[in-house]
Design brief:
Distance between the termini: 48 Å
Number of strands: 13
CATH topology of one domain: Lysozyme
Organism: Photobacterium aquae
GO molecular function, one term: carbohydrate binding
Strand content: 5-15%
Structural class: alpha+beta
CATH architecture of one domain: Orthogonal Bundle
GO biological process, one term: carbohydrate metabolic process
Keywords: Disulfide bond, Hydrolase, Plant defense, Signal
GO cellular component, one term: extracellular region
Helix content: 25-40%
């Protein structure tokens, strides 16, 4: 299931991108519409026909929590992927790599995190070595753990590192972000706003969404999305109790979830390692291919990849840790695999406009004009390459997008999906079709009167029905009118009909920032302007740089310039 087969598949998908849809006025909601569920499901199926969508969905399948919590080391009843993980990475190896770790991280919790996601250390039916892929996945994860939550203590620092542990043996030292503790509200940037993120993932009063767990999960929208994956779509569990990401097996499951989740156009890290993914031509041109370096780009490419970051501390550390672990565990590296990402364009800077061999994973309203549908609205959603309220990898989200459950889409009509749409009035097939109305049966058309979809009028010997909002358009000229009976022959609509005057329909929705909360371009008065090599700050101090505001969180001192949220800084709104 390689992406290199995409071009033909995408072509078929685009060709089938317009569907016959039975859209009718909603009898329970004036101004709204109903659509059969079968039509919605057919549209979604056609838009996600590429086999990679099924691969992604399979990778994100989860085991029920009651079965996960029954997992213990050595049990014959453990899921098959857990048994494989125990075989290639037994508890002795866990202890070897976690001698400095926080007590909240345990081997049992590690196995439960793996057991939650059957695709991690899962089976392959095409001849790939599942044991080798499992081991490489675990070692790759530990290289990133060592950077994200490691001790970073030199091997010859005998005072702080009396056992002389290598830095790649110092993973999982921190379970909570440095400087933060439970009961401390914080990281609430973006909370309480009137936007779809708050409607979908509402912040709880008094909670802090600072970094927790092996991957340092941060911000309410990430806690909400992870909660949905862990608790059958319920975002509120972790939004109300984010401390679970530190104090339960979720502290490691959050990292496995990230490992398996594609962030279009970024691939899932697992599929970089097991080669289910194949880079598109645009990615190849940007230097992105197989190897550990691409996993850095997936995690933090905007900060750590590109030639300007070649000698930066974070990527240099990650690569050292990977190479140390890879050498110790004798992980095979293929000739086309590259450990570094300084030669890669960060994914956030990669221009994929017009690329036909890249798949996207989020739904957004399709604002393309359809002359044969009420108001010219498509009543469809399309795949986009930025974060939205609706995911193509979550069952039922396409329907939520069409009905706009989280009110995330501009000028989108009220839509209700039903199992059966009753036959509409007027001529046509149905159990009780109405006879053709006689000319003059309906009120005469008036040039100054406003008509909306479904209104019927008589004009020049014919009867006409409005397809959408109209005023002043002669029914015989087609466009917003269709002839339903009478002696005047139907008039074909013009090739390029003008869109309706009301309601307005945006051709393209605004692109909302996919991950980080928005910031104001103008910094507030009185806040320190960052000067590289001079400005010195401590935890909690705010500075401005490039018109943006940042709060120090790890005593950056005078050497780490703030450009985006990272280990040292949080980008925050300028207030």
């Amino acid at each position: 299931m390689k992406l290199k087969r995409l071009v033909a598949v995408v072509g078929c998908t685009l060709a089938a991108n317009s569907f016959a849809m039975n859209i009718q006025p909603d009898p329970e909601n004036p101004g709204g519409y109903i659509i059969p569920r079968a039509d919605i499901e057919a549209a979604e199926k056609a838009k996600t026909a590429d086999p990679m969508y099924a691969v992604w969905a399979k990778a994100l399948e989860t085991l029920p929590n009651n079965k996960v919590e029954a997992i213990l080391p050595g049990l014959a009843s453990n899921p098959s992927n857990v048994i494989r993980a125990e075989k290639v990475f037994p508890e002795t190896e866990w202890k070897f790599l976690t001698d400095m770790a926080a007590p909240e991280y345990t081997y049992t919790r590690f196995l439960r995190a793996i057991g939650k996601f059957p695709a991690f250390c899962g089976d392959y039916t095409d001849g790939r070595d599942a044991d080798a892929i499992c081991k490489k996945s675990i070692i790759t994860a530990f290289a990133h753990f060592a950077q994200e939550t490691g001790g970073h203590i030199a091997v010859d620092n005998h005072w702080d590192n009396p056992k002389g542990l290598e830095e790649w043996q110092q993973a999982l030292v921190h379970v909570r972000e440095m400087g933060w503790s439970e009961g401390q509200p914080g990281y609430t940037t973006g909370c309480g706003g009137n936007d779809w993120q708050n409607r979908k993932w509402p912040c709880a009063d008094g909670q802090g969404y600072f970094g927790r767990g092996a991957k340092q999960l941060s911000y309410h929208f990430n806690y909400g999305a992870f909660s949905e994956a862990m608790y059958d779509g319920d975002a509120t569990v972790l939004l109300n109790n984010p401390g679970l990401v530190a104090d339960s097996w979720l502290n490691l499951a959050s990292a496995i979830w990230f490992f398996l989740t594609p962030q279009a156009p970024k691939p899932a890290m697992l599929h970089v390692i097991d080669r289910t993914w194949t880079p598109s031509q645009r990615e190849k041109d940007a230097g992105i291919g197989f190897g550990f370096g691409t996993t850095i780009n997936v995690i933090n490419g905007g900060i750590e990849c590109g030639e300007q970051n070649k000698d930066k501390g974070q990527p240099v550390n990650r690569i050292r840790y990977w190479e140390g672990l890879q050498s110790h565990y004798q992980i095979p590296v293929e000739p086309d695999e590259v450990n570094t990402c300084w030669q890669q364009t960060p994914y956030g800077s990669l221009n994929l406009n017009g690329a036909t061999d890249v798949l996207y994973t989020n739904w957004e309203a399709d604002y393309k004009y359809h002359s044969d549908r009420p108001g010219g609205v498509s009543f469809e959603c399309k795949l986009v390459g930025y974060q939205t309220a609706y995911s193509a990898l979550v069952k039922g989200d396409y329907e939520k997008c069409v009905t706009d459950v989280y009110d995330a889409q501009i000028s989108w009509p009220d839509v209700r999906v039903v199992d059966d749409v009753p036959p509409g009035p007027g001529p046509g097939p149905g159990p009780n079709p109405d006879p053709d109305p006689e000319p003059g049966e309906f009120p005469a058309w008036e040039a100054t009167k406003v008509y909306t979809g479904g209104d019927k009028v008589s004009y020049k010997g014919g009867n006409y029905e409005a397809k959408w909002w109209t005023q002043g358009n002669e029914p015989t000229q087609g466009g917003p009118w269709k002839q339903i009976s009478g002696t005047t022959p139907p008039v074909e609509p013009p090739v390029n009909p003008e869109p309706p005057v009301e309601p307005p329909v945006n051709p393209e929705p605004p692109v909302e920032p996919p991950v980080e909360p928005p910031v104001n371009p103008e910094p507030p008065a009185g806040v320190t302007e960052w000067v590289a090599g001079q400005t010195k700050v401590s935890n909690g101090d705010m500075v401005t740089n490039g018109g943006k505001c940042f709060v120090a969180k790890n005593n950056p001192g005078v050497w780490e310039s703030p450009t985006a949220s990272n280990w040292f800084w949080n980008e925050v709104p300028c207030k």
